[in-house]
Amino acid sequence: MGLLDNKIALVTGAGGGIGRGIARRFAREGAALVLAEINAESGEQIAREARELGARAVFIQTDVCKKEQVLAAVQKAVDEFGGIDILVNNAFAPTPNILMEDKTDEMLEQTLNSTIWAAWWAMRAALPHMQRRGGGKVVNFYSIDVDVGAWLHADYNTAKAGILGLTRSAAAEWGRFNITVNAIAPTAMGATFHQLCQDNPGFAERSASLRPLGRCGDPEHDIAPAVLFLASDLSCYMTGEAIHVDGGLHMPGYNSRPAHVKVREY
């Protein structure tokens, strides 16, 4: 028996990194999966992997910055499997890592669309279907970057802070429908991590050394189990929480000031 037997899950950004790890873990635990991903090649690939692991799984190409495509992903779960029990709002459209004064309105708009608006649209669309099934689970994505005020991520930090507010508001109001809403703040060896390793020799070793556990997280084996916990009945009495899944990095935090930025400028 899997922890998600007879459950229907929608995972956004499922084609790579943490999203792929979640999809694979959910497949092993018996969930029927709708895998929403903007990249068709990687989306089809993870759907094949999920089916090879024994799950019923379908891919739907989804740009979470577009409301109609988010709504279509939710409807796909209803049309293919009869409803939705679990919603994982993982997708995110990154913008360039530049100073706050250089960020544009368009960058902020893109970040808000792919985080707060995407989660808002998906949650509200999933609500009536979860109600009909007697409850549900929503897992949103927060970030340690908010806690440390990470440099070069002003738009991202702003949006992720909003995600925490959305998570707690929905947890407070939707508990009456037996819907739990929680968030995780993960750090893992996803696409961004591997790019940083390529661009900055020694980055992986430095990153691991900052964490009390002394290693960087694997999306499938370190992050996905925490999402599985929040998506399963194991967390049935838990809502409105934000959990750090980062090997302990949130305790010491980290200094993200770029080396080229002076301490004082006029």
TrEMBL record:
GO terms for molecular function: oxidoreductase activity, acting on the CH-OH group of donors, NAD or NADP as acceptor. It holds the Pfam family adh_short_C2. InterPro entries: NAD(P)-bd_dom_sf (IPR036291), Sc_DH/Rdtase_CS (IPR020904), SDR_fam (IPR002347). Belongs to the short-chain dehydrogenases/reductases (SDR) family. This is SDR family oxidoreductase.
